[in-house]
């Protein structure tokens, strides 16, 4: 990975009771008067919802455009809250699956939606300050809490005002003297206005014998030669790399469930792959990554990888071009989550698990993919995938004039790093059922 919808406002109003509209020939019974006691208040009813679901982004210094931490913050945006919640735009979530399918599902419950909409319809009262729950505690500058260690690129990188910027690569030694188990990883752009995406790879000499788990389709995995900037990628002899962290539009820090963690070998080097986009003003960036270590002395190792299709061509003006992808499992495996990624023409995704006997089921459907809100969909009940099974992916693209985000509907589109090009890329988090063995001793 080189890594609005329009809804009738009147329909949203009618559905959620913000205006009384009745269709029919018979007289409608009068609606009961709303009493002050029945109107939700910010302090008692609304603040707990915002604290649970919204303020990780809607607070000072985070990616949302305004804070919702206090009544004074939230009250001016009451109508916007009504519209965004009523139309399903906020909190952002694009997978089509029942509540409970994904552990990081951001959607509000029906009761939570009703509370917010009734609060706005009732005049958005503040309520009794004594009813306010404690304001959530956040670490300034970090969404996942205070890191145990922070690494940053070694310089303030200068981004020009105009033009395209090829991928830049920065290398930072960790100086770890022993293996580290990482409970959460947060890639933090120094300047969100110009960082299109940031990937962090880990280069290290293996100290475990990790047997192959994923078999990709060689015809799909052939990328065109990369276009690099002043800081080209390095080949570090004897130190294979693997991606461990991602920041893209709308992503959140990767926090692994208790009992699982990424394992980093000692002596590793971090590789930052940075994709910058110009915005008319010369500026700088200094991206960081923060790691929180697991308190569990022997968590199950989560491995990160990817599969993609770089061999496609999307015709000009095509409004529903489909591009397939696939990965096969060489041993019994637990799959924790999937990360679909396309660029501005991407419109939908579908993933099917095909078992060795040929039966299949949909495991992830994203009918409204949004480039601005890219998500690692983490299964609440991890998938237990047997040896010989496959995951088949399909991404659909809209290269027509009807796609308002389309950079050029008349272009023939192929795989490429820049946003006006395209990708068909899936990140995958998994753990083989059989644990790895130590390289030096061969013991479990």
List the SSEs and their pairings.
Layout lengths: L8 H7 L26 H12 L17 H4 L3 H9 L23 H12 L27 E4 L4 E3 L8 E6 L6 E9 L6 E9 L4 E2 L4 E3 L24 E7 L6 E2 L4 E5 L4 E8 L6 E3 L2 E6 L6 E2 L1 E6 L4 E2 L6 E9 L3 E9 L4 E9 L5 E7 L10 E9 L4 E8 L15 E2 L10 E8 L4 E2 L6
Parallel strand pairs: 10-14
Antiparallel strand pairs: 1-13, 2-12, 3-11, 4-9, 4-10, 4-13, 5-8, 5-11, 6-25, 7-17, 15-24, 16-23, 17-22, 18-21, 18-24, 19-20, 19-22
What distance separates the N and C termini? Answer: 34 Å
Helix content: under 10%
Computed Rg: 24 Å
Strand content: 25-35%
| Largest pleated sheet | 6 strands, mixed
Note poorly predicted spans: 1-32
How many helical stretches? 5
Mean of the pLDDT scores? Answer: 87
Q: Specify the overall morphology.
A: globular
Describe the structure.
The protein has 444 residues and is mainly beta. It is 10% helix and 32% strand. The chain has 5 helices and 25 strands. The protein has helices at residues 9-15, 42-53, 71-74, 78-86, 110-121, and strands spanning 149-152, 157-159, 168-173, 180-188, 195-203, 208-209, 214-216, 241-247, 254-255, 260-264, 269-276, 283-285, 288-293, 300-301, 303-308, 313-314, 321-329, 333-341, 346-354, 360-366, 377-385, 390-397, 413-414, 425-432, 437-438. Strands 1, 4, 9, 10, 13 and 14 form a 6-stranded mixed beta sheet that branches. The longest helix has 12 residues, at 42-53. The two termini are 34 Å apart. The model is unreliable at 1-32 (pLDDT under 50).
